[in-house]
């Protein structure tokens, strides 16, 4: 990889930034790593963990001389991060990010950094943990990273970023930014919206105590609480910046849920059985393509 | 345990029945196990796996002489199973079950088996796998088993069943059947209904291909597919027999989802952040009380 990037700057050292740092260390040990986080506590912890070679005291300082700059901040903070790095950005630097919405982020980066080399990216990977301690090198292994270059983007830049993510263990796909946002509204944003809602409903319902919800959560509810424990700021920003695609997908979900409710009201067991049989096929595809483990219960150890 | 039940009959040898058989073997080796399944293939497989000591060719035959009979069939098949065992049931036999709805099952068992000793039960445990091969002895370790005896039930029967489930590694709670159905509508039935719906929506939406849904499922969607891969007949029956509690809980969920949608439409980031911060607390309770593992991603190995 030394023919592509010799110096990489990571802005934002939470779960994703820290995981990129550890993955670079593991897979591209010759790369010089620079890093910065706006939060002094995170910065101090990143220093203790020795996540990067050079921990900067400012964003502009962190990107000085970097050939690749990756913004690993919540989507709503991308514009501010881009403004902060602008003074230090060299003409050779390729600017990328890891945001879960690409249309909004791409237009913000283009607005704030006119003339810069920009290739937005989204590694579809994560856990419910946040912060620098949560990062680990294998997070991107076998996961997809979606690049959403603008029309007319430099093909060499796209190829270099593709090689970078491939080196970190990811599989890379190139896609239109707005199509990305529709796809992810289905596979990620709506599931999180629903999970946050159901956890809220369960904690708020009068007829059942919170203690009961926790005790009997192994009946299905606990699986929703994992993704509803994800970073609140990150998800607030995703929902607000991918609003159109998300609400369109939500509308479909609401219609499907209403149809299922009607089938239950009508005692239509045949329709229910047929639907529940079809949904199992998607699970098989996900396991076969290595996007989940096939062991029961996610391979959870018996507690 | 020999002072409680010396002979146990299991009717239905799927995931739960097979797990009870294996758990009895592991924890109560002196118990004589009898078993039956209506499906000849399941019966043959149970024989190959040597799940029970005596594999019967009929339900009535299976329960002859048994001190505890556990019906491990879908909720909608309970009445038929109770009718089938009736001719073989001795006066000493305690009849129980493992169904996820207790109000409906209790009244069905009472109707079909007037005068019998009945203590309905629900072990809140399971995986997305079905069938005799999916059973394992540790399934109930640390999980709750809820007993819902009728008013006036024999306290000695309740105590014996409590001791049985405790021996299998479960924690036991006694509860009113209808309250059980409300609690489980929140912690199990609604989550499954939502998971089935979202997997259906994702597989059916025009703007996104099924291949894309599978590829990018690691963004959250895959967690829903696990519970939507559960036994279709079992879930059809649960939704139809716990309809009232389920639809009341669904109404709350729909109201909460509509409020969240409004907050997104109104760009109310403060409300979203506050809500998403609160939902993390329930997750902590579930992990602290041993109802889930605290490792990121359910402790899934990196793929």
Question: Which properties best describe this structure?
Answer:
Rossmann fold, 2 domains, 12 helices, globular, 6-phosphogluconate dehydrogenase C-terminal fold, homodimer, three-stranded mixed beta sheet, six-stranded parallel beta sheet, 303 residues, alpha/beta
Your description of this structure?
The structure is a homodimer of 303-residue chains. Helix content of chain A is 50%, strand content 11%. Chain A is an alpha/beta fold and 303 residues long. Chain A folds into two domains: 7-175, NAD(P)-binding Rossmann-like Domain (Rossmann fold, 3-Layer(aba) Sandwich), CATH 3.40.50.720; 179-290, 6-phosphogluconate dehydrogenase C-terminal like domain (6-phosphogluconate dehydrogenase C-terminal fold, Orthogonal Bundle), CATH 1.10.3660. In chain A, strands 3-2-1-4-5-6 form a six-stranded parallel beta sheet, sandwiched between helices. In chain A, helix 7 (177-204) crosses helix 9 (221-227) and helix 7 (177-204) crosses helix 11.
The secondary-structure element order of chain A is EHEHEHEHEHEEEHEHHHHHH
User: Oligomeric state of the chains?
Assistant: homodimer
Rg of chain A is: 21 Å
Largest interface: A-B, 112 and 112 residues
| CATH architecture grouping of the largest domain in chain A | 3-Layer(aba) Sandwich
Under CATH, the topology of the largest domain in chain A can be stated as: Rossmann fold
Indicate the proportion of strand residues of chain A: 5-15%
Integer tally of domains of chain A: 2
Low-confidence sequence ranges of chain A = none
Number of alpha- plus pi-helical segments of chain A = 12
Q: CATH superfamily of the largest domain in chain A, please?
A: NAD(P)-binding Rossmann-like Domain
Please report the total strand number of chain A as a whole number: 9
Distance between the termini of chain A: 43 Å
What best-fitting shape of chain A do the alpha-carbon axes yield? globular
CATH class of the largest domain in chain A: Alpha Beta
- Spatial order of strands in the largest sheet of chain A: 3-2-1-4-5-6
Q: Quick one: biggest sheet of chain A?
A: 6 strands, parallel
